[in-house]
């Protein structure tokens, strides 16, 4: 029990063919190469596996069928290990002794069928002919498992090339063998497919895929030879007895290797609150932003009841959120003292961010004081919005940090609140605020702008402000507001004419585009 199997004293390579007999099992590694992990954008901490049926084995020079009604058949050139002596609970340092041979394999799969497999790959990779292997075996006794090379060609073009050294593999082959052996017995003749490097992509009927594994630094530079597989089109449709093909852009991108290779538009990058957008938002009053958001169906984006603690203060920044729950003595003991959620957030806020605190509109206790305000100011925070109170009111104002609140209160935190969690959706002043939302505040109050609407509503607000300023000039000149505010067709035409003339008169002074002025 729990002991290492005896290392083989003599091992014979299976006769050519390349395998002596059909293996009892084929175990495949999901993700094993650094290049593939970087391509996929994820790097596992430990290897994970799936099984392929022995009926999926195919000889070199064979064919692989793309099923009727599918489009995403992908190749994966891999190094295959053949077990020579049973392995159970073997340590890493002796695991390679249980490998008798190395050869090339092609771990074919249909991405159209992955959606129903949940990682098992039974449908997508288990079809007949989807594990070509060979043509020749390399003696594991004469090759260094960390000095192998894997190459794949499609229609004669080299598309995959990697090595099995530390800079190539996430998990050395010996680790994979040892890991599997602690879960199951690896039996003589079993095959392990060790994962594919970057470069795997989609092939179509008529394409020819060739895979080769060699040991270029070993004596004689032994090689598996090229494992050749030709893709053909299947003509038997799927029935309605189980899961059939289904794909989306995510599967297309993974099958082809990238969105670009799949002919898809790049995914939009993360929203950035640029200096240009901040400048626009500072020129866009909260009242105007609120009106533009209402035109777009967003009526519940105002944080009610909060005002700037310092006259003239404004806020523009992305939200970091802090949630307080009603005080309960046992919960305050567990969550209120020490390095609690409140202190952690004030220590973590970054430049340009606004701390938004959910205090349930409770004004009978403070939600921050001068020390925390100073900490946020030192870290470059854009401000604080709380629907609760502020203690050390004058000292907080003296820090220069813009703070919007319900007003002053001298009580400490534990009177009404328990700091609970951070960077979650909060309800502040009756508005839902998500981490990353854009928060804008001025003398009229505070509004929450969803990131995807920021530039649109900022531009619309500034344009509206320009028009309203012109309307105010006409009213000051004695014109009645009827038909002017808002402008009817006649007044709108006058405004457009004025704007055009104003733009022309400014052009000689600056050659910069209007948007940058």
Automatic annotation (TrEMBL):
Residues 495-517 are annotated as: Disordered. It comes from Promicromonospora umidemergens. Keywords: Metal-binding. NCBIfam families: PRK08245.1 (NF006093), PRK12764.1 (NF009399). This is Fumarylacetoacetase-like C-terminal domain-containing protein. Residues 499-511 have a biased composition (Low complexity). Signal peptide: none annotated. It comes from the Bacteria. Gene3D superfamilies: Fumarylacetoacetase-like, C-terminal domain, Ribonuclease E inhibitor RraA/RraA-like. InterPro entries: Fumarylacetoacetase-like_C (IPR011234), Fumarylacetoacetase_C_sf (IPR036663), RraA/RraA-like (IPR005493), RraA/RraA-like_sf (IPR036704). Transmembrane segments: none annotated. Residues 25-231 form the Fumarylacetoacetase-like C-terminal domain.
